[in-house]
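so my prof wants the structure for this chain in the tokens format not the other one, which i didnt know existed until like an hour ago. anyway here's the sequence
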Amino acid sequence: MHDINNYFKVKYNNVVPEAGKILIAEPFLGDYYFKRSIVLLIEHNDKGSFGLVLTKPLHVQLNEMLNDFPAFPAEVYLGGPVKTDNLFYIHTLGNELEGSSKIIDGLYWGGNLDQVKELILLNRMKPHNIRFFAGYSGWSELQLEGELKRDSWLVSDMQSPEIMHAPPAELWNNALQRLGGRYANWTRFPVDPSQN
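here's what i got, hopefully its the right format
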């Protein structure tokens, strides 16, 4: 007979975090911002980590939040608990936006916001080219490593098309299914074990 405690135990997968990797929340992480979430790491170095939660749409469009922004049917996401009054964005435009930084092939972050507005007004920017975030997720020096050792996250990869186009509600399940085995079984765990 299998030990059920071993079946449910989260195991750190020993993939090294770095810019462009994703963090997959373990199934029982109950934090409001990170419950069943995927975080895209934008920066990771010896001073800390910076990332954006990909799975928390706010169900509001940017021009509903910013008065001086043109109408544009792109949803805004909650990027994390830090500086939620600041705007961040990832996109597929590369060098079309001055000041952009490459995250992975086909995916960039930041760049000139005035150029974003101009591209929208010229109808050269489509909602599938850009994703906006209010706030970000941040970890101080060695904080993320500590959370990884406590099995709060798995580290994995995700390609630009999935990051930009997959429905956010499917990202967590899809990432775990790709890892297979024990991790794929996590998708069957109840969201709230006390309700089971």
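also thought this was worth mentioning. The chain has a mean pLDDT of 90.
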